[in-house]
Structure prediction request, 335 residues.
Amino acid sequence: MIILLRNEADPKNVSALKERLAGWNVKVSSADVFGTEALKLEGDLDKVDFSLVKSFDCVSTITKTGDPFKFASRRNYPEKTVIEVGGVKIGDGSFNVIAGPCSVESDEQICGIAASVKESGATILRGGAFKPRTSPYAFQGLKARGIEMLSEAKKRTGMPVISEIVDISSLPYFEHVDIIQVGARNMQNFELLKELGHINKPVLLKRGPANTIEEFLLSAEYILSGGNRNVILCERGVRTFESMTRNTLDIAAIPILKKLSHLPVFADPSHACGRSDIVPAIAIACCAAGADGVMVEVHNDPVNAFSDGAQSITPAAFSEMMKKIRAVSKINETV
Ligand SMILES: [Mn+2]
Prediction:
């Protein structure tokens, strides 16, 4: 970490800064950067409040030389993280598709959709039981009963399953859930993330709609630093001025996350787009951009779905999408 000082810096202000830095127990040494005086910081910089450092009049610029997200950093851990659930490998270079309804609605619904998406090539089944909805009057999910139905579909198809947690108190219900999803609204629910850091179950963490990539990786860091190294990142669109889609899928986040981190990177075109007609095209684009997988909402009767019907594709559309995804992932593997 280098702090470049202003040429006309007041020596008293520089001393005050050095004193403050000493309070954080960091080693400070003077350096010369192309004729400009600078301070080089070494040691544990986690406690340093860089906003405060920047507020000193003598400071010109601060150049960070390391990643603030230590365990998520590819620089610190170059080897890619491969997560195995129920015989499915995530992050090993293969492309995995998570598919299923937004909400588990009945045994017939979840088992029927599970069988059809599996046949088309999906490797993991999704189904929401605890639903964080924008309106308190919207369908809130079947909760424990929904998880039971999802477990039944898992038993019948052999597919590992993923479902969203909204509160740590419901963790006991997730015993037979293979991957716990933390939704976009909970990306910065730090107490929930800390608790998930103490278990071993894989966690798929979605990016918040108004969060930067660095904030996203720092949220992953909450889970990783607690000891749980099985984290999957999922880009799901950010809020922009565009109204043609629910959110704007940040496709650039995919290769950037792959570059910055060793964690598997997924994308969720359903929640990003909010409209089923363009979900297949965007899912294919995510595959081309180098994602390790996508999560897609599929419903046998989207018009009558309990939630997110407008963005759910039919099993037939899913099957067509999978043909194109297979072709694109083949290109990714061969070139
Ligand atoms: Mn949904």
Observations:
- The chain has ten helices and 14 strands.
